[in-house]
Amino acid sequence: MRSPRRTVAVLFGGRSSEHEVSCTTAGGVLGAIDRERWDVVAVGIGRDGSWTLQSSDPSDWALTEVGMPHVVPSSHRVLLPAAADTATWRREDDGVVTALADVDVAFPLLHGPWGEDGTIQGAMELVDVRYVGSGVLASAIGMDKQFMKAAFRAQGLPVADDVVIAPGDSPGAFRAQIEALGLPVFVKPARAGSSMGISRVDSWDELDAAVAGAITHDPKVLIERGMSGREIETAVLGARDGVRTSMPGEIVTAGDHAFYDFHAKYFDTDHVRLDCPAVLAPDDAARIREFAARAYAAVAAEGIARVDVFYAPDGTVTVNEINTMPGFTPTSMYPRMWSATGVTYPELVEELLQAALSRSTGLR
Description:
The protein is of the alpha+beta class. The chain contains ten helices and 17 strands.
């Protein structure tokens, strides 16, 4: 007989360079899910793409001094429902397939390509599994900085000037356009997150090496005019009662960090300060929250998103990006901003799960 409680499948790991970040995020969410209300199935996706049954104990996915956690594939394979008319997920052990659980909602916590970019969302859509977060289109747009910025521009949102080097193109062919941006520029993989592969270029002699570094994460590279000002973030929540924005937060870096890079985000916490809420005039805070809601709508996001902007000394706001699956550990900016706005981490997780349950399946 089926349990009267709901069942959530938490998906994490994945094939991208953000595998460990995803596992750390999963540790936070697994610790926040109300086990009195939810049965949890933890599904780890290995770097080889295999889906296996993993521990749902949050301590097994915690960030430690030894390093970041990762999925170790096991022989307990996890299979999606066989068809769209059943909620039963299955497991395969030594070639024998048995029922695993009737899953009510999936919580994809994958960062980067092969997860955050619409691929996992598409897999859920194929078999009518409800899931937390944005759909296929919004996830794909949110992952690709070129098309994300095109969506923002179409809605009249201010963004930094940029040059895109497509796969196979020679950076030298765009040299004049790139230099017209002026120094400094930021060189970014077009489809990556967690600040991986991003370089600040203060001299044109550094450009080729920066492009080469970005290409190791994505063959498409975006080169963007450097923006001055404070880095302000806003959390957006699409819940059953509509779209809400949090109090903005600010990232302040010091030490050897020229910007909020991967090492600063996850390891060098002594030189990073997260101010929640950010110190802003009320009118400016309201305007940044409005921009966040507009960016969320521009890509048709759902559920969870974080919008990052640059706030210049003269009050000018420039939208940097939207992240449709932001870092979601208890110390990440997204839940911290909601905490400052009056929503606790467990309440936030529950709200996202309930919002996913209320969504229709199939085309939306």
